[in-house]
Amino acid sequence: MSASRWVEAFLDSLTAERDAALNTRLAYRRDLHAFVDWLTRRGGDVMTAQDADIDGYLQACDDQGLSKATRARRLSSVRQFFRFLNEEGLRPDNPSLRLAGPGRDRKLPGILELSEIESLIEAARITPQDSLRNVCLLELLYATGMRVSELVSLPVAAVRGDPRVILVKGKGGKERLVPLSPPSREALAAWLVERDRTQECQVRGSPPSRFLFPSRGAAGHLTRQGFFGLLKTLAVQAGLPQEKVTPHRLRHAFATHLLAGGADLRSIQAMLGHADLATTEIYTHVLDERLRELVLTHHPLARPDSAEQ
C-alpha cells in the first residue's frame, strides 16, 4: 500500500476507536500528507523513516516560519501515525518516540469586553435578515462558551422545552452539561418559533432539519466559516475592529468574565470541556494582567506624574 493509503487507514482507526470528529480527521489528514509529501520529495518512505528524518521535517517547518504551536501539532500527528503503524505490526518501531517537541508559546488569549459583546448583540438585533437567529447564536455562544463547531451543529432536540441546561457533544465525542442564562433562553425561544415556522414553509414532503441552525449546504447546518463571516459583518456594523471579533474571543470572554465574577476554575473547566485544568488556568493569567493594567492606569500613585508631586 502507498503512504497515502496508510494515512487513510489511520484516519479510519480514529473514527472507529475514538469517534474522532470530522474536523479532527481533516486536521490529521492535512498534517500527515504534508509530512508524507516532504518525505517523498527526498526519496524517503514512512516504512523506513527514522528519527533523523522526522527531525529534519520539523526543522523544515521551522525554516518555513511555522509557529511553535503548528510544529507541535504536526509532530503530535506524526507520532500518532507511527504509533498506529507500530501497533498494527506494519513497523517494528516508532521512530518519533525520542523526539522532543518544540513546546508551545503560552499566549494569553484575547477577549472582548462586555460592552463590545453588547454592541455585537445589538448589531445582530437590527440586521434586516435572520436577526432572531443571529441574536440566538451570539447569546448562546457567550452564555455557554461553546466551541463554534459545537454551536453550529447543535441538534434542535437538545433545546426543546425551555431547558435551563443543555447537553453538548464536544471533542472526542465527550458530552457535558452547560447552563443557559436568561437572555440566552429568551433568544432561543424566539428563534425556535421563527425556525419552526420557516421549516414548515420551506420543507414539504421532506423530513425537517434536525439542527438548531439549519442550512441547505452539505453539512445541513450553518458552517463554522459561515458563522465566522457573520461575526465579521456584525463587527463592522457594531463599529468594532474585524480582527478583534472572532468566535474564540467570545469563548475566552465567557471564561474570563465568569472567573472575574467569582466562578471557580473547576466549574469553568467543566463548562468549556477542557480535559486538563492546566488549559483553563491560562484565564487566571488573563485576569491578573487585566488587574495589573487597571492598577497602572487608574491608581493615583501609578501615574507618571505622581513621582513629581
TrEMBL record:
User: Which GO MF terms does the UniProt record name?
Assistant: DNA binding; tyrosine-based site-specific recombinase activity
Task: From the Swiss-Prot or TrEMBL record, state where the protein is found.
Answer: Cytoplasm
* NCBIfam families, per database record: PRK00283.1
Domain Tyr recombinase stretches: 107-296
Q: Report the source organism.
A: Rubellimicrobium rubrum
Do the record's keywords include Cell division?
Answer: yes
What is the official name of this protein in its record? Tyrosine recombinase XerC
Query: What gene is this protein a product of?
Result: xerC
The UniProt keywords, alphabetically, are: Cell cycle, Cell division, Chromosome partition, Cytoplasm, DNA integration, DNA recombination, DNA-binding
| InterPro entries (UniProt xref) | CB, DNA_brk_join_enz, Integrase-like_cat_sf, Integrase_catalytic, Integrase_recombinase_N, Integrase_SAM-like_N, Tyrosine_recombinase_XerC/XerD, Tyrosine_recombinase_XerCD
According to the entry, every stretch annotated as the Core-binding (CB) domain falls at 1-86
Q: Its quaternary structure?
A: Forms a cyclic heterotetrameric complex composed of two molecules of XerC and two molecules of XerD.
Describe the task this protein carries out. Site-specific tyrosine recombinase, which acts by catalyzing the cutting and rejoining of the recombining DNA molecules. The XerC-XerD complex is essential to convert dimers of the bacterial chromosome into monomers to permit their segregation at cell division. It also contributes to the segregational stability of plasmids.
Q: Which residues form the active site?
A: 147, 171, 248, 251, 274, 283
Per the record, the GO terms for biological process are: cell division; chromosome segregation; DNA transposition
Question: What family does the Swiss-Prot or TrEMBL record give for this protein?
Answer: Belongs to the 'phage' integrase family. XerC subfamily.
Q: What GO CC terms are in its UniProt record?
A: cytoplasm
Keyword Cell cycle on entry: yes
